[in-house]
Design brief:
It is a single chain. The chain is 83% helix and 0% strand. It is mainly alpha-helical. It has a single domain, classed as Chorismate Mutase Domain, subunit A (Up-down Bundle), CATH 1.20.59.10. The chain starts with a helix and ends with a helix. One of its GO terms (molecular function) is chorismate mutase activity. This is Chorismate mutase.
């Protein structure tokens, strides 16, 4: 049971880091949305997202996690687009 508790604590630390990084990412997405709105630029950039997909495949060391990482980034990119679109409505 001690090992399980130790692993849970490790996950808690990682979760905290994930939340901090997510907040930073969303703050950047907010600013990007403002800049895109000011410049009349579309939120969604197909070429940029395709490049992001290729890049994350290169970053991943454990290929058995590919489907999980794809799902994670799908969600992150969707939320980022939503945040940017919120800036378009202002």
């Amino acid at each position: 049971m001690q090992e399980l508790d130790k692993l849970r604590l490790e996950l808690d630390v990682i979760d905290e880091q994930i939340v901090t990084l997510f907040e930073q990412r969303m703050a950047i997405s907010t600013r990007m949305g403002v800049l895109k709105n000011e410049g009349g630029i579309q939120v969604w950039n197909e070429a940029r997202e395709a490049a992001k997909v290729r890049n994350r495949e290169k970053m991943l060391r454990d290929r058995s996690l590919t489907a999980y990482v794809d799902k994670l980034f799908e969600t992150i990119l969707e939320l980022s687009r939503q945040r940017q679109e919120e800036q378009q409505d202002r």
